[in-house]
């Protein structure tokens, strides 16, 4: 460890003089690659050339408008207006925006979307094709219409009431209801505590059309709007188009003031208790409000402070993680840090989740850590590690700057426009970080922490289950714990140092004994001395990144039911054990200054090791992979600690209707097979520490039964030498395992059930499944994807838009080759309890249409173009080649060949899909489940 810290300190010493080039009192400059301006009507624009992905661009309109601007009789209309932007504009009547873009492969939901918040509304058209036949002018016209040309037709408004009512229903969960109880106190009686964006149900279904039109006229105006366009575009050309088109929009005369709500300070501390029957855990939080730096006052100093807050949060996370690894955990989870609350208020927060009736213990424990820092501050070694990790993160971001997506830039523009969050460019940010981080001191960060932690303008929020036998902290008890901790005898934190040398020596260094070129993949296969196979392919689409994956047949299929609980939690538990002689916390310290991680998993049919690193840390990743086989760590104290936290976590989930629903699905879908276990107390009681050790060693005791894949930005010879050295040193034998088919499958025939369930807010959840045998071929697999996407289109139009019956219908299609060749199509949605009997026949009607008549040419073309568009984008990522290689070795199919993918998509016909639908649906096993509030309740 010493030599890493020494080299880090030397680096910092070299960089300190660079601080002089930044005047902390000046504003942060804007990235010179950004073209920006403000039109005479007040509209702001941002334009940037970017090529991730190529031949694509994203178009955003950012409205400095949200639910906070609603009058009481408009509660919910900011969000309603966002919906109406997709239901008719001057140049795109009815659903013209969605239909026009979908004809070019741009999908609603994935590429066409929007959101409304309390202070902002943002619309996006993402990764739109902009090649020779591109959609630049179309997208600009859409943004133009969103700015000033919504039709707000009365019929369209009435049709959308049902959709938004169902969205309102889907949001009514425990978290929503708890927030409704504590928000008035958190926001100290301000308007923020009265607006939840989705709005009032009565307003949604009864407002007068003119109220929505008034909100649109008052607030959707050019002086409160910005457009952001990022992509593979000619910036000069786009700027001219923007000026020509958007300058035509007239500024609103006598505009209303865009006011901002402030939260009045409150010297004395507040308290609120919020409970709900569906809440799973008790949580104790202390929120301390602070004035935010106003956008116009932000400077380099504000930028630097955000770095300091990141350093503080990083060190606190490490302390809390260490606290939770051993002994009796005082809380289930804990967090301390900085956050934004509103445009004018920031937060310093302290929060912990507690075991039942132990809120006092949890609150005292998390406050003790706060008081420890307040009294003694942080240690120099903690700060050195935090600095090294912070700078490493920026370095990795800088090296991967060519892969920053269009949407990432657009989201930055949103923050720049609304909050004046600096956007100087990654190159500038990296240089600024290298300049300022070395000079940060422990005393400075301790003072920052102390400024954040105060009992003025603070509120204690207790949330938890409304359940007999569970008592919650009252106001007096909460306040007395704070005073108790202030007087408590607390020792300073001791930062134990560790050796960063993961492996001192290998019993034997592996080597390559055979090499086979794979020209169809531009890859190579190495056979190592222990008969392990390693497949390597260079890929630098994602620069500075290297991925490791592997697989071995077997998995949990080889074990009896009594061991399945242990296998089910093994990867989660062992991630907290560390590796070799290092605990989890010690391992994090040892890896300071490095980007390398390796994990494992055991699935039904296989086990695997996977990891990632930057090229410089490839050897570290290989060492970790070696140790996963040869030096796993089994920490019984950490096991017991995590078991206690899990038991506390599940204590109140048994009565949760969502848990009941999901458990019912699992049981019904497996036809109550004995190998189907439900997560809960009985499940955890079946977990065995000793069996965990045995099973792990059995699954990872033979490297020759694994195939490893290395894909990334690392040269062939380096990958060959280092991977062979460590992977070839793993013990192996001649045993070759295979998976076992334990015949876990859905019930045969037709299953129709209506299952009463006590949702807190009445609703019906519908789940429909079709299962059938189906040959696993590229044609069938891609055909199922067509059917999935086309059904999604049909249900959006027929059930969401025409019927207003649900916020959305989810359709998923999947096929398997092992353990048997079969496929499943699942369909699900939430709705009003009185509507599901009407909507279910509509689900089947769309399937019947495909069986009887095939699909429409329009739906076929929309889907085809969308799939080809997505395929082209996927190819520009390292992960594409990892998936291609894994699929080839596991399934025996080369999905990179056009005849196995693009050619099938390009030539897919309505008749082919009709034939597939007949084959699949006609004799499929069907399961139709409706979970609905008991009518007698």
Structure overview:
The protein has 937 residues and is of the alpha+beta class. It folds into four domains: 35-246, Cytochrome Bc1 Complex, Chain A, domain 1 (2-Layer Sandwich), CATH 3.30.830.10; 270-486, 2-Layer Sandwich (Cytochrome Bc1 Complex, Chain A, domain 1); 512-727, Cytochrome Bc1 Complex, Chain A, domain 1 (2-Layer Sandwich), CATH 3.30.830; 750-932, Cytochrome Bc1 Complex, Chain A, domain 1 (2-Layer Sandwich). 42% of the residues lie in helices and 18% in strands. It is built from 30 helices and 23 strands. The protein has a seven-stranded mixed beta sheet with strand order 12-13-14-18-15-17-16. A hairpin with a 4-residue loop joins strand 13 (523-528) and strand 14. The longest helix has 25 residues, at 778-802. The protein is globular, with a radius of gyration of 29 Å. The relative contact order is 0.10.
Brief sketch in words of this structure:
The chain has 937 residues and is an alpha+beta fold. 42% of the residues lie in helices and 18% in strands.
Question: Which key terms come to mind for this protein?
Answer:
globular, alpha+beta, Cytochrome Bc1 Complex, Chain A, domain 1, disordered N terminus, 7-stranded mixed β-sheet, 937 residues, 23 strands, 42% helix, 6-stranded mixed β-sheet, 4 domains
């Amino acid at each position: 460890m010493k030599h890493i810290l020494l080299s880090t300190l030397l680096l910092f010493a070299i960089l300190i003089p660079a601080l002089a080039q930044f005047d902390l009192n000046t504003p942060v400059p804007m990235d010179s690659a950004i073209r920006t301006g403000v039109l005479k009507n007040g509209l702001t624009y941002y334009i940037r050339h970017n090529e991730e992905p190529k031949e694509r661009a994203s178009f955003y309109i950012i409205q400095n408008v949200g639910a906070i601007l609603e009058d009481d009789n408009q509660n919910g209309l900011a969000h309603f207006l966002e919906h109406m932007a997709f239901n008719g504009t001057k140049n795109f009547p009815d659903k013209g925006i969605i239909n026009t873009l979908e004809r070019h492969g741009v999908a609603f939901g994935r590429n066409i979307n929007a959101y409304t918040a309390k202070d902002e509304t943002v619309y996006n058209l993402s990764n739109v094709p902009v090649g020779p036949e591109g959609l630049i002018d179309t997208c600009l016209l859409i943004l133009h219409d969103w700015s000033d040309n919504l039709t707000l037709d009365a019929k369209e408004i009435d049709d959308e009431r049902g959709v938004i009512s169902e969205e309102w229903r889907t949001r009514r969960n425990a978290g929503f209801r708890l927030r409704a109880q504590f928000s008035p106190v958190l926001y100290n009686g301000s308007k923020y505590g009265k607006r939840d964006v989705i709005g009032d149900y009565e307003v949604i279904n009864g407002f007068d059309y003119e109220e929505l039109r008034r909100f649109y006229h008052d607030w959707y105006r050019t002086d409160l709007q910005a457009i952001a366009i990022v992509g593979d575009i000619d910036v000069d050309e786009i700027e001219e188009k923007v000026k020509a088109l958007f300058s035509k929009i007239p500024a609103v005369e006598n505009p209303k003031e865009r006011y901002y709500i402030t939260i009045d300070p409150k010297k004395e501390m507040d308290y609120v208790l919020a409970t709900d029957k569906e809440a799973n855990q008790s949580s104790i939080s202390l929120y301390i409000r602070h004035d935010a730096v106003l956008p116009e006052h932000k400077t380099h100093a504000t930028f630097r402070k955000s770095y300091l807050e990141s350093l503080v949060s990083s060190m606190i996370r490490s302390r809390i993680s260490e606290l939770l690894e051993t002994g009796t955990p005082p809380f289930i989870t804990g967090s301390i840090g900085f956050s934004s609350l509103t445009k004018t208020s920031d937060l310093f927060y302290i929060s912990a989740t507690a075991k039942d009736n132990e809120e006092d213990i949890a609150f005292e424990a998390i406050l003790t850590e706060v008081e420890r820092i307040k009294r003694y501050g942080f240690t120099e070694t903690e700060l050195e590690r935090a600095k090294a990790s912070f700078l490493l993160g920026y370095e990795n971001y800088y090296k991967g700057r060519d892969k920053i997506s269009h949407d990432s830039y657009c989201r930055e523009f949103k923050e720049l426009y609304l909050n004046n969050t600096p956007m100087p460019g990654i190159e500038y940010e990296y240089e600024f970080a290298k300049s300022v981080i070395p000079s940060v001191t422990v005393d400075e960060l301790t003072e920052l922490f102390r400024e954040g932690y105060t009992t003025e303008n603070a509120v204690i929020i207790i949330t938890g289950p409304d359940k007999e036998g569970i008592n919650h902290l009252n106001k007096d008890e909460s306040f007395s714990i704070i005073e108790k901790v202030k007087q408590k005898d607390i020792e300073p934190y001791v930062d134990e140092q560790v050796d960063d040398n993961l492996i001192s020596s290998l019993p034997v260094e592996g080597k390559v004994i055979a090499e086979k070129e794979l020209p169809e993949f531009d890859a190579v296969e190495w056979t190592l001395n222990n008969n392990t196979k390693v497949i390597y392919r260079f890929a630098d689409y994602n620069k500075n990144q290297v991925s490791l994956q592997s697989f071995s047949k077997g998995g949990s299929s080889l074990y009896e039911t009594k061991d399945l609980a242990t296998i089910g939690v093994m990867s989660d538990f062992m991630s907290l054990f560390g590796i070799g002689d290092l605990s989890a916390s010690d391992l994090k310290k040892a890896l300071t200054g490095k980007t390398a991680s390796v994990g494992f998993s055991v699935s039904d049919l296989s086990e695997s090791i996977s990891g990632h690193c930057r090229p410089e840390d490839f050897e570290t990743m290989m060492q970790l992979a070696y140790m996963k086989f040869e030096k796993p760590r089994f920490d019984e104290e950490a096991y017991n600690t995590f078991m206690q936290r899990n038991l506390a976590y599940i204590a109140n989930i048994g009565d949760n209707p969502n848990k009941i629903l999901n458990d019912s699905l699992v049981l019904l879908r497996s036809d109550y097979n004995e190998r189907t276990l439900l997560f809960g107390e009985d499940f955890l009681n079946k977990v065995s520490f000793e069996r965990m050790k045995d099973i792990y060693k059995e699954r990872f005791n033979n490297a020759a039964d694994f195939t490893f894949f290395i894909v990334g930005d690392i040269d062939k010879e380096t990958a060959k030498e280092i991977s062979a050295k460590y992977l070839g040193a793993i013990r192996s034998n001649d045993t070759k395992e295979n998976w076992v088919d334990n015949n876990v499958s859905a019930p045969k025939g037709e299953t129709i059930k209506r299952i009463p369930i006590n949702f807190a807010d009445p609703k019906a959840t519908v789940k429909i499944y079709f299962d059938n045998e189906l040959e696993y071929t590229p044609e069938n697999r891609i055909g199922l994807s067509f059917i999935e996407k086309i059904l999604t289109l049909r249900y959006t139009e027929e059930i969401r838009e025409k019927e207003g019956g649900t916020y959305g219908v989810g359709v998923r299609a999947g096929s398997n080759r092992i353990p048997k060749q079969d496929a499943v199509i699942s369909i699900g949605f939430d709705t009003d309890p009185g509507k599901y009997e009407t909507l279910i026949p509509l689900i089947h009607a769309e399937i019947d249409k495909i069986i009887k008549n095939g699909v429409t040419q329009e739906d076929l073309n929309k889907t085809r173009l969308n799939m080809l568009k997505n395929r082209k984008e996927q190819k520009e990522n390292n992960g594409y080649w990892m998936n291609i290689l894994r699929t080839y070795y596991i399934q025996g199919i080369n999905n990179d060949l056009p005849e196995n993918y693009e050619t099938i998509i390009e030539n897919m016909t309505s008749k082919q899909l009709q034939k597939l639908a007949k084959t699949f649906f006609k004799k499929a096993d069907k399961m139709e489940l409706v979970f609905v509030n008991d009518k007698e309740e």
